[in-house]
Amino acid sequence: MADLKSNVFGIDFPNPVMPAAGPNVKSSRLMIEAAATGSGAVVSKTFSVVPASDPRPTMKKTVAGGLLNCETWLEDSYENFITELQNVKAESEIPLIVSIGYSAEDVAFLGRLLEKEIQPDAIEFSTHYTGSDIQPLLAVAESLKSSVNVPVLMKLSPGFPQLEELAQEAEPFVDGFVAVNSFGPALDFNPVKAAPSLGSDWGQGWLSGPPLLPIALGIVCRLAGIVSKPIIGVGGITCGTDAVKFLMAGASLVQLCTTAIHEGPSAYGRIAAEISDWLDDNGYSSIDDIKNLYLNNIENRRQ
Ligand SMILES: Cc1cc2nc3c(=O)[nH]c(=O)nc-3n(C[C@H](O)[C@H](O)[C@H](O)COP(=O)(O)O)c2cc1C
Predict the structure, then answer these.
(1) How much distance in Å is there from the Cα of 20 to the middle of ligand 1?
(2) What is the tens place of the pLDDT at every residue in 87-121?
């Protein structure tokens, strides 16, 4: 059986598959189930100093297995969520990555609190809902990095206008990237009703799931060609072969959200097992054998 273990950001991962921040990891029960059913790490739902208040409905299926959502961050208080995360830490032995947002002040406060109360293995911060200028996001990265000792990961949004410049300029302040968040705003609705399906303004939402995969894969590959810090690939992964493509395009690890919303926490372990089968079937003995394979091939072609 192929070896799925790796060390990324100085952390040992038993396999490269883990949740992406979303409703699939909004409670300790869901995070503990993810760990128990074969995930390589636990990642939490994003939370902030002020609880979110989302317009209902927050999710609607769209074309080609995709999902539109207008869910923002956690709707519970950070004090309650810290207790949930303490339960996760006590119950699971795999790495714990906690997702937070949004301002420089928020992430410094929450980062210090997490290190004191939870000791997560890494902290991921979201760059959604923070505008389209690079400088304020660099200030958030710098603020978190200077407040904590654990690795800091910047989660990138695919609609950001200068995504590659942002990643390059942020690289000195972060230990890695998570690419990508959902894409939007985007729209779908039932023409019989001719009315919004989501509770948001204009009924618009963020696109995730299979239609996002080629966009996410393209971004991961371009980023891997220009930054040297590790990237966690995310967007549209439904099976082991999808995950293999991200690893070949330059990702070191992968995350999934929409598939876990549809299928439940067993999706992470299923996809890890499928990666192992794919490696066995194609004559590889470890995930290190396939990492960057596509990236290296196109770099050779471009030389
Ligand atoms: C309902 C929903 C809620 C989400 N909430 C968050 C969040 O709180 N923080 C975050 O960084 N990303 C959030 N995401 C984005 C996912 O983590 C992921 O980046 C995106 O959905 C693409 O992956 P997927 O196609 O596997 O779902 C959310 C996605 C969905 C569908």
Answers:
(1) 6
(2) 999 999 999 999 999 999 999 999 999 999 999 99
Tell me the sheet residues that pair with 123. 98, 152
Q: Nearest-5° angle of CA 136, CA 140, CA 141?
A: 115
Domain 6-302: which topology?
TIM Barrel (3.20.20)
Query: What is the pTM for the complete model shown?
Result: 0.98
Distance CA 96, CA 40 (A): 10
Coil/strand/helix, residue 146: coil
Q: What is the DSSP letter of 120?
A: -
71 lines ligand 1 (CB under 6 A): yes
Evaluate: CB of 153 within 6 angstroms of ligand 1: no
Number of alpha helices (DSSP H) and beta strands (DSSP E) in the chain: 10, 16
Contact in structure between 151 and 175 (CB atoms under 8 Å): yes
Ligand 1 pocket member 236 (CB < 6 A): yes
Residue with tokens 């000792």: 149
